[in-house]
Each structure stands twice: as structure tokens, then as C-alpha cells.
Design brief:
single chain; 440 residues; alpha/beta; Rossmann fold; GMP Synthetase, Chain A, domain 3; 3 domains; seven-stranded mixed beta sheet; six-stranded mixed beta sheet; 12 helices; 16 strands
Amino acid sequence: MPLPVVTIVGRPNVGKSTIFNRTIRRRVAVVDPTPGVTRDRNYAKTEYDGLDFTLVDTGGYLLPSEGGELDGAVREQTLIAADEADLVMFVIDALSGLTDTDHKLAKIILSKNVPVVFIANKVDDTTQVGLAYEAASLGLGEPVPCSALTGYQFAEMLDSLAAKMRELNLDKTEKVDENELALAIIGAPNAGKSSLVNRLSGDNRMVVSDIAGTTRDSIDTVIKYHGKSIRLIDTAGLRRKRFKLSGLEFYTTLRAIRAMERSNVVVIMIDAELGLTQGDVKLISLATQNGIGIIIAVNKWDAIEKDHKSADRWLDEWRIRMQTHLWVPIVFISALTGQRAIKVIEYALEINEERNRKIPTPELNDSIGTIVNNNPPPAIKGKFVRVKFVTQVMTAPPKFIFFASHAKLVGKAYKRYAERLIREKYTFKGTPIRLSFREK
């Protein structure tokens, strides 16, 4: 099932990004005293007290009268994030006191009936706790005073968050059928996601059941194909009729993240009329980071003007723009007519097998290990990297470790070379692979 989504909201400069960074225990969000620095949203999977969740850092909320066009986009993203959240961390600055913006945002959050953990940040010691409790007038309950910057009572704040999550049963996990392939259909709005699900489940007359998904407003469709059980996860349609472009991209990304957490393989739908967009590239990157199998489905292929070289030109552009993803299969489809739609299922089953493939260590060393030692990285200050052996330590996604002398000298370019060797020998079609060099 998808991880619960916890979203941090508040006006600018109340310390949201500092809370985000301290919670995930690494610096990701840019922290700056200038209001509005967090423009792009930050997402991170994290864990506290045995609870796994996705933490979302939003930009500072400003009233329409306070900001410009960019602030309007951030405001919209904040509201979308609140809509999608299982739990909201509402943050105020206890030192500067409440503002009209705090009151307005609190009313909006209350109207959404989303559970809240109320945080009064920038409280550095017990003498300032009284400032925090003045904020109870917002109607969000009793605030938890803390300082994300110094760490004062931060563990207590996280304890409150964990208690709230357990109260809401956000610590429960759904039993997953290990024999079932979970296939998420993601992509920009109007790329044809639901049309593809309808085509695959309808035309082939292999629907087993429609199941209400744990992702909001989604329906999982379980189908059978050649005796294999496949759960199609369709990300839900837009609730809001009019999104600005930035809000639309944020919504798409958040929905995609939730779908990926439930899937083995994702189909990234690309509109043939629009071509490969930056939003598509972002989704590909997210899937790669999450180790999920990837299929690119270029949809509406029937709707564009083309000749016998159109597909070749599209693939040429892909090879230029996505040189690190030449292992991703691409299929040109029409969800409307059904043209090549079944190839999506065939690729998904093949990729899922590739993700779970395990190469024996002796075989790896006979093939990859020998080649690497015959073509080692360049020596640095007289130090030579010598690979002792290579082994695959996990599957789904496949991960390889090269044990070597002076392993720290191995750069990114050589790691890409090692990955290319593995793919040339074993393919691993459609699946990201991980590899690292360790000292031996």
C-alpha cells in the first residue's frame, strides 16, 4: 500500500524546511531566512518510531494581497498538498506571533477536515513556551512547542506526530499478494491513463474485480493475462477544474509518487502530440530513484501526422535526451483504438521477471569481473583500482557490489561503464539497477 503522506504547511519563514530536513535527518530542502525560498516541492520517504511515511515540504502560503504570480502558484500547490495529505503539520512562528495569513490558512485547513499536528516552531527554551500556547486561538488544538533549528523538544514533536498517525491507523499495512504484478499507470493529465486501463480491462475481457484503492479516488482493476494476475493502478482524475501549470505538475508528481509506492512496474504515458516534456522526464527520474520497472507508452499515436520514419525520429530524440535510460522499452500505442496496447502488459511481465533476476556470483566474476579488471579505472597518484570480486546482493531492483582496492577512487563515469557492461551481458530490460564499489 502507499505510504501515508504527511504535508508541512505554513506561511513563509516559519521554519518548514528546517523541520523537513531535521525530520528526514538530511539536508534536502534549501533553508534560507528569505521568505518564499522553497519554490519547488520536496518529497522524501522517511521513518520515525517504526512508522514509514512520505514527507512533503511546501512553499510558504501568502494571501493573494501579499504576493505576486509566483506566490499564487505556491499558494495553489499548498492547497493541493493539503488535499492529498493523510495528515498535515501546521507550522507557526511562535516568536513573531500570529498573523492574518496564519488565521486564513488555519481556516482553509479546518475546512478540509484533514487531521492536523499543530507545531509552534522557534521555541528554544521553557521561557518561550507561553508564546506558543497563545496560538490556540487558531482552533487547531494545542500546539506542540519546539525548535527545529536547535532541536529543542523536537523529539517530543515527532512523538506527537507518531501518536497521531497511530490514532489514525496510518501505521497499518495492507497485505500484498506476492504473486500479483502491480502495474501503475502514471503521467500527465489527459495523456490517456484511464483510457489505457479501460482498454486493457475491457477489450480483453479478463477483469477479475474492481477494488477501491487506498490512493484517494482511484480504482484498482485486477486482470488475468495468460494465467498471470495483474493489478492495474490508475491514478485518479483531477478534482480541480482549473490548475495553473505549476499546480498541475505538483499534483501529477504527488499522485505518481503514491502510485509508485504500490507498484512493481510503472507505465509512463506520454502524449504523442506534446512529445517528451520536462514533467515526463521528472516522472522517469522518480521511478528510477525508486527502483521501479519502467515502460514508456507514447499514446495517441493514431492522432498525429506521421510517416514511416516518425517512430525512428522519436527514438532518436529519446537517445539524445535520455542517454542514461536507453534500457527503457518504448511502445507507440493508441489507447483509443487499442493499437499495440497489449504490448504494455507483455512488457510489464517481462520487466518484472528482469527485476527479480539473480545472477550467480561465479558467473558474474567470469564475465563482468574479468572485463573490469582488463579495463580498470585510471590510476590516481599511483594508486590502482583492482576489483577482487563482484556479486549481486539483492533483486527488485537488482543491486551489484564490486569489492575492490582503492574503491573510493572510482568515479561516476566508470560506474556508468560498469553498468553498461552488466546491461550488455544481462540486459535487465526496463529495470533500474544499483551498483557500488566497496573497499576490500
